[in-house]
Every structure is written in structure tokens, then in C-alpha cells.
Specification:
Mean pLDDT: 78
Largest sheet: 4 strands, mixed
Distance between the termini: 52 Å
CATH architecture of one domain: 2-Layer Sandwich
Low-confidence stretches: 86-97
Strand order of the largest sheet: 1-4-3-2
């Protein structure tokens, strides 16, 4: 019996509305580096749902994985040091410029 739900559908990488302003300020090279890392997360099948982050030079890139919707979303780009999971209760930090 064939399932109507395609579990082999690839993940999509998107930019959350709140992050577009931050992305617009990045150089083309930095944006491509971020995009490549997010595509790596998507290619790995994003095994676990939830939020994550990774450093890129002096920036920290925050993303969220939605396994049900098969979506990796760029949430925020900050200039803070260290990579902690983003949560709604987290205080605001300086944004990338």
C-alpha cells in the first residue's frame, strides 16, 4: 500500500519574516555561507525537531527545524558570543548590521 504522505520529500529552507531585514544587511558571501550551512542541516534530514544555532565568524545564526512540515527556518542573526538555543523567553540581543 502506498502512503499518500511522502516521507522522502526534501526539507525546504526558508527565511522567517523577522530575519529578512538582517539578511538584507549581509554581504553576498556571508549570506551564501549561511545558506550552505542551513542546506546542510536540511540535507541531514534534520533528525530532531527544535531550535538550534551555529557560529559564523562573529555572528550566531539561529534556526528552527519543523520535521512535520519538513522545513528549516532561519530565525535570527545575532552578534552574541556562543550558541544557545533560542527560546521565546530569551532577552533581545544586538542584531547583525
Amino acid at each position: 500500500m502506498k502512503s499518500q504522505r511522502n516521507i522522502h520529500r526534501p526539507f525546504t529552507v526558508e527565511i522567517a519574516a523577522a530575519a529578512w531585514n538582517q539578511v538584507a544587511r549581509l554581504s553576498r558571501e556571508r549570506y551564501r555561507a549561511i545558506q550552505a550551512r542551513l542546506e546542510e542541516v536540511a540535507a541531514l534530514g534534520a533528525l530532531a525537531e527544535g531550535s538550534g544555532c551555529f557560529p559564523l565568524e562573529e555572528l550566531t545564526i539561529h534556526y528552527h527545524v519543523d520535521t512535520r512540515r519538513r522545513l528549516v527556518s532561519l530565525l535570527d542573526i545575532t552578534r552574541d558570543k556562543g550558541c544557545t538555543t533560542k527560546s521565546p523567553a530569551r532577552p533581545s540581543t544586538t542584531r547583525a548590521s
